[in-house]
User: What shape does this take?
Amino acid sequence: MEYLIHIAILAVIYGILGIGLNLVVGFTGLLSVTHAAFFGIGAYATGILLTNHIADFWGSLGLGMLIAAVLALIIGLVLSRFRDDYYALASFGFNTIVFALFLNLQDITRGPLGIPGIPRPEILGYSFGENFSFLILALIFLAAVYFFSKWLTESSFGRVLKAVREDERAAQVFGYNTFYFKLAIFSTAAALAAIAGSLFASYITFIDPSTFTLHESMFILAVIIFGGLASLRGSIVGAVALILLPEILRFVGFPAEIAAQMRQVVYGLVLVLLMLYRPRGFFGEYKF
Amino acid sequence: MSTTWKWIIGVIVVILVVWGLSSDGKPTLPEGSGPLKVGVILPLTGDAGVYGEAMRNVTDIAFEKINKEGGVLGRELAPVYEDGKCNGKDAVSAAQKLVNVDKVQVIVGGFCSGESLAALPIATQAKVFMISGGSSSPDLTGASDFFARVVPSDAVQGQVLAKVAYEQNNWKNIAFIQEQTDYAVGLYKSFSSTFEGLGGKINKEEFQTQTSDFRSLLSKLKASSPDALFLDTQSSTSAERIIKQLQELSWSPKILVSDAIVVDADFLKKYAKVFEGALGAEFGVDYTNQSFQSLKSAYISKFKVSDMPYPSYTSTQYDAVYIVKSGIEKVGYDGVKLAKWSRELSGWQGVSGSISIEKTGDRSSGHSPRVVKDGVSTLLK
Amino acid sequence: MDILPQVLVNGLIAGSLYALVALGFNLAYGATKFFNLAHGALSVVGGYTALAVLRDLGWGLGWAIVIGILMSAGIGWLLDKFIYLPLRKRKASNMVLLVASLGAFTAIQAIIAILFTSQFQTLLAGESKIIDLFGYAVVTGVQLSAFVTVAVVGLGLYLILKFTRFGKAVRAVSDDGEVARIVGIQTDKIVGTVFLIASGLAGLAGILIGFDTGLEPTMGMSLLLKGVIASIVGGIGNVYCGIAGAFLLGIIENLGVWQFSGEWKDAIAFGLLIIFLLFRPKGIFKN
Assistant: This one.
């Protein structure tokens, strides 16, 4: 049962990541492959502030979201000028640069040594040390992120995003400053990713740069493509599916040394097959 | 597919998975006759996969031998391998599964320091004893009462090397090429604090693990005319690339190496010329000792290779398994008791020599300086 | 200052390997107008095939190179026939193709890791001959061959594209696939052949890298990204500008390492990409 709770917590964290990325990719049509960078910022904010006793979990959460949002604004200023494949490529670039920052700014992040001993969150004296209570906390965050995103995408703001996705020129002709919309959603998504990061750091209690690579961004992208673009429910389903898959493989009799590689093969094949036969994903409405 | 159907299918899948996973986790029967499970966390895949593979091999040998000799308390000892991938997230999942599904009381692992650091809290909370045969990060000293290790902390290695380099070899100005991993950074820190404290100068360049082109890095270091070059790499992969490029740049500096390299006998032989006179530090594995020799021949014959790789790590990993066996014999299959017992270990004879574990969980034994002559690492002075 | 010549030479060495990758990538991009991420995996295929021929079959160097190139060319062609072509027929957008190519890349790389283990291997048995360039800098025999190969391949491609009927058809398809089809050119077959050639070039790059710095199954992505940066910096879609971009990238990376420090190398390469995307998206040459 403990093990299932652990899997559930990971699925919830990746569900939050998926929803955030979906806002940018599924609803606005921007192929961003740098989400792991903001995931990392949330994680490091919590890791650094908590282990140095500068702030508590909530403070670090807020600060992490703020830093991620601001960084996203800066990055977004550049990214929002691009479209399609160029957007994707430039985002690769940003992920690589932010990763280099995590790895090289050792005075702040301890680089490859990572940050061990990150404590669990505390509220009014109650510590979320028990995994089950942490799961509840994480689920509350997931619900908050989900309903916020639902509200956002169903509002007039959300309609403009979809317009940008379908035909940016047309949206501009109608008088919308699409640049600002793209920037705003990118920044919002980054803040949501930071939430996932704070939860992750506090749960695993040890973080290092290797979790926040381009590879990870691609994994999050795979989650939402599988679950369905522009489907918030789909992001959660995708996260559950792609987290469960390697765990199930632990129980399958694959020889241990090729298990991870086999998982990669399966991911790759799933992506290809999805693109060929169901590019909109499991629950998706947007066929990109 | 209508939405309702999708939900139904989703729920069925979840139920099947839950059922499948839970029926696998039958609680172990400590008072029974089935095998006693010992969790093992190793980097079976990923960048450190080369180590993980060798460690798994030697762990297999240990378990087989134990069981052939009658097992423990009349029962077999069964390893349960999990892949830690040398990173925190996967090590946590591995530990979670071992502790909660397999319900082990003891884990041999992690191997990478990152794995141990991440898995610690889980073992500690579940009162499961963890013993590592490879994690050398100074951050693990005293990190948990449930953690012990058969390798000494890296803090010692750097100090020893620094002293010898500065005082004996008279190397005052050292160029440092360091891989960006926790092991390599830890070694740099312990070396530099002693070396610079003695008055030496260090010129350091760092590189990410996947780097294959070191040419300009090396050109730059060469231009600083150092007395020696410290190859601080995680494994012989990067070291090999660097050495080749050293040769291509026609630079033959004196070399210092991390213990990950100095224990790699094949590698030293392959580049004997480059390594002539090189300094390294290894903690005292006495290769003439009988138990080491038998382990080595067992490894060679079972896996059909020409030599046992990473001998100092395979020795400690093997010892870790045997220490677990001793522990269970003495105090029973109980995480709390094993953890307490480990702290009292003193003079336990293993393949890697005499082992004593301190209150902090560290192995008390220093690194000894070694120098490479004719492609073979020999004890210095 | 006295290591500047060596740093520049290092840049050219790195550049020639990037150039081979960029050549193939650009060729394919010109004909299909999407970023094929699987290109990097094909380099890995080429390198490892050569390894298998040399090590497991025991055949000679020439065979290793030829079979390596053929294998990567073949797999590239298959990718087009079974994945990209059907997608193009359905008028799939560039993003779909990009994601599909990402999937192909992931799968191929993992299969290579399974077949050959993740261990680092090198194609070169002994030491490489060292060549001294008038006392200013040093290169090895392998690196010089890489440089020469780029020149030869570049020239060969130029001749093919300019003077042969096939080349003209490729240019027509690159300019406008629809119009080419209307005019009677068998676009699909031409694209397939382009993939064949481009993938073969990727394989060749992988083999040369195998000789120079060794093989690892994970080297594909970084190689591809460098090739992409080179292509964009040089001028996307134009085969030769990619070569110029590659050398520029190689030199700037090495200058960066020299002036700053090694750990920022990748960040510098991508920084260059972003600067170019911002200010000169068509590449250095004002086409």
